[in-house]
């Protein structure tokens, strides 16, 4: 009797299968009504009394081993079947979120597109500038407040972070002959307290046109074209006298309020207009400083903050949103390009 048990134990231990039918056949062969182990148990009563204890223990171990084996193999088959069920290749994929451009990038591109359509080239230059390109060439007097430590981030006595991209235009004028028609986009830096309306870093696009007989009427018409393109056909502009060291005469440009169409509301503080940029005729001193004969050539220049245009276009009331990268804000801007 005992001799019979060991080879069966070996058979149980070595049995392995991932086929549910084979496992069931094994169960029936061992543990079924007419199974081997069931048969051995039936023979128990014939075992001589002195062997009963030993046989009983062995047969119980064998039965348990066979039962555990069946449970274990069935569980493994079950798991791999359920993992097969999870892997449904015909199921649609995980939703994939597309990113979108930053609102400042969208507006920057819109502005550049509008001017390149009428023949302006794009010029870029260094963010760290020397005093000559940022100030002196642009006719800033020695004692001008913009040179003050309060407004400019100085790196050295003569080197600073540019406060406007007019510095790029000085470089273009130095390096090329008129006609010049260029726009300069880029980051600029001013030592200002950060608030809803101001930041120490912001983005500008400045424009420059130099040719024989360029007039203030050319400037006005170019800016009217720009305003209608960026804000819509109904938009009107208004120029107010102003002062910049590098232009004479100089003006601030206002556009009719988008919200109330010029009738007056709280966005435009009941004036019907919103300021968008500075402009003017290039001062002859600036042309001479950059090696251009001011008796032959004249020109106009203008400069705007991209944040300001974006705030008006999308009715954003706090400039800091553009720098915080809050997805709830950014997700609202979708663009085709
Ligand atoms: N450079 C001026 C600024 O940064 C803008 C400007 C450019 C004004 C050209 C007039 C002409 O504010």
Describe the secondary-structure layout.
Layout: H1 2-14, H2 20-31, H3 36-42, H4 49-86, H5 103-117, E1 121-122, E2 128-130, H6 131-134, E3 159-161, H7 166-175, E4 180-189, E5 201-211, H8 216-231, E6 237-244, E7 247-256, E8 273-282, H9 284-289, E9 298-305, H10 306-314, H11 321-324, H12 327-330
Parallel strand pairs: 1-4
Antiparallel strand pairs: 2-3, 4-5, 5-9, 6-7, 7-8, 8-9
Helix pairs in contact: 1-4, 2-4, 5-10
Bound molecules: phenylalanine (PHE).
Helix/strand class: alpha+beta
At the fold tier of CATH, the topology name of the largest domain is BirA Bifunctional Protein, domain 2
Spans where pLDDT lies below 50 across 5 or more residues: none
Mean pLDDT: 90
* Overall 3D form: rod-shaped
Q: What string gives the helices and strands in order?
A: HHHHHEEHEHEEHEEEHEHHH
Please summarize the sheet with the most strands: 7 strands, mixed
- The share of residues in extended strands comes to 15-25%
Count of helix runs:
12
Euclidean distance between termini CA atoms = 86 Å
The rounded Rg comes to 42 Å
Widest beta sheet: strand line-up: 1-4-5-9-8-7-6
CATH homologous superfamily label of the largest domain: Bira Bifunctional Protein, Domain 2
Helical amount: 40-55%
Number of domains: 2
**What is the CATH architecture descriptor of the largest domain?**
2-Layer Sandwich
Counted beta strands:
9
């Amino acid at each position: 009797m005992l001799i019979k048990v060991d080879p069966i134990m070996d058979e149980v231990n070595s049995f392995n299968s991932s086929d549910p039918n084979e496992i069931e056949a094994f169960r029936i062969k061992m543990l079924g009504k007419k199974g081997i182990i069931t048969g051995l148990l039936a023979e128990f009563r014939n075992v001589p009394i002195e062997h009963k204890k030993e046989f009983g223990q062995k047969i119980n171990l064998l039965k348990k081993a066979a039962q555990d084996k069946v449970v274990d193999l069935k569980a493994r088959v079950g798991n791999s079947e359920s993992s097969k069920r999870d892997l449904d290749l015909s199921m649609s994929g995980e939703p994939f979120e597309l990113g979108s451009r930053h609102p400042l990038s969208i507006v920057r591109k819109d502005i550049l597109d509008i001017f390149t359509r009428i023949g302006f080239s794009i010029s870029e230059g260094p963010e760290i500038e020397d005093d000559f390109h940022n100030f002196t060439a642009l006719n800033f007097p020695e004692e001008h407040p913009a040179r003050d430590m309060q407004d400019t981030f100085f790196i050295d006595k003569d080197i600073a972070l540019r406060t406007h991209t007019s510095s790029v235009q000085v470089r273009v004028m130095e390096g090329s002959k008129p006609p010049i028609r260029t726009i300069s986009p880029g980051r600029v830096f001013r030592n200002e307290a950060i608030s809803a309306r101001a930041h120490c870093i912001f983005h500008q696009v400045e424009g420059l046109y130099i040719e024989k007989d360029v007039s203030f009427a050319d400037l006005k018409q170019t800016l009217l074209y720009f305003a209608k393109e960026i804000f819509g056909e109904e938009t009107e502009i208004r120029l107010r006298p102003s002062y910049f060291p590098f232009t004479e005469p100089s003006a601030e440009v206002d556009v009719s309020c988008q919200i109330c169409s010029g009738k007056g509301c709280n966005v435009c503080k009941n004036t019907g207009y919103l300021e968008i940029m500075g402009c003017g005729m290039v001062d002859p001193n600036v042309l001479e400083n950059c090696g251009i004969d001011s008796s032959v050539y004249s020109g106009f220049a203008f400069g705007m903050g991209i944040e300001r245009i974006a705030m008006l276009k999308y009715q954003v009331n706090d400039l800091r949103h553009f720098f915080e990268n809050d997805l709830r804000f950014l997700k609202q801007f979708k663009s085709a390009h």
